[in-house]
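Lecture notes, unit on protein representations.

Consider one protein chain, 428 amino acids long.
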Amino acid sequence: MLCGYELKIRAPEAPAEAQFDLGSEADTKNGADDQDDQDPRAGRAPTPAQRVARAIIRGLVESNVRNALTGHPAYIDTNRDMLFDDAIERLPAERFLFELPPDMHVDDELIARIVLLHGRRYRFVLDDVTQPNETFAKLLPYAEAIKIDITRAPAALLPKLTSVLKSAGKLLIAAGLDAQADFETAHGLGFDRFQGYFFARPQTSLTRRVSAPRHALLNLLQLLAGDPTVAQLEAELKLNPVLVMHLMKLANSSGFAVGHKVTTLREAINATGTDRIARWTQLLLYADGRKVALEDDPLLQLAATRARFMELAIERLPDAGRDEADAAFLTGVFSFVDAVFGGSLESTLNVLTLSRPIQAAILHREGVLGQLLAAVEALENGAWDKLAARCAQLAPLTIEEVAQMGLAAGAWAGVADRSAEGLERIED
């Protein structure tokens, strides 16, 4: 289950003193719009570090960033400049947690500032902890959560450290998890939350069995591919009450309002339309099956974001129409379907009877669809050099447009229940 996002921010044009030791998942540039950025305490222009901090804050409150968080809290790295800048209070306290680095200089002034912000309901996380030090001891009373890199912390120290911190009521986050063994170690130690690229890679297993609901979804997809009648679709949907529940909710959502409450399955099918039912069914293939809300389901969110990105991106290319956009969406949605069904990706794609260009894109990254798929993978990994090379092949698509479409796709996946485009948020 998704519990939150860490926002990785780059400031590549910033001077050395303004670098925040951040990664490259989102790109915020130092730039214009600084007319309100005078330092109110000193009556002078802000320092370069303050300018970067305020540019980051402006980016964090942008609507697509907020929507892409799908209601989850965002963890952001901070430094002294950022904490002491009053602009930080533009961030809603309930949505953002401030991560404090292990090398932060701690003095009475910093403690007073943290206490002030804490009194305004801002929360703090001790970041990148490997073993206790003086900074850790001074900041511990004000931290809600402790993020420990279990791959770098001394193995002999971890059981005692986690036990003491849990006894103190701290939320423990295991960071740096890149493999199954790392996760199992952290889980065994009693960590509450887990973070790492291990969770961004769909896990496949040759022994995995497709659940009954997913079998029903697969049958429904195959039926939808053949332009079924309403009666045929109604009969197939009735075989799975969970699908009917989702469809009734979808048909009665604001995006599909027909002037009255939809009360029958046939009305729901007519109100929603087979195209939207197909998209909704494709995405539900990735739903966990444990009644996890759709916005909390990591695999579904990844599939929805990637599919929507593919659709948005191909619409920027010459001669792309509705058919090309549909093919792009399908390519994104099924690009890791082996994580759902197990077995080889090629055999699973054959079962789904996808077109040759879509299969070639997914299996071999061939054609325009394959290039777009490679581009979104580079975006997901923050591989900006690879993304720039792909954009050169996908002119007129630019790296800036790709970044913006990535945010827009994440926002669509998180709050598409507010639109008429097909993915419903289910509140369990």
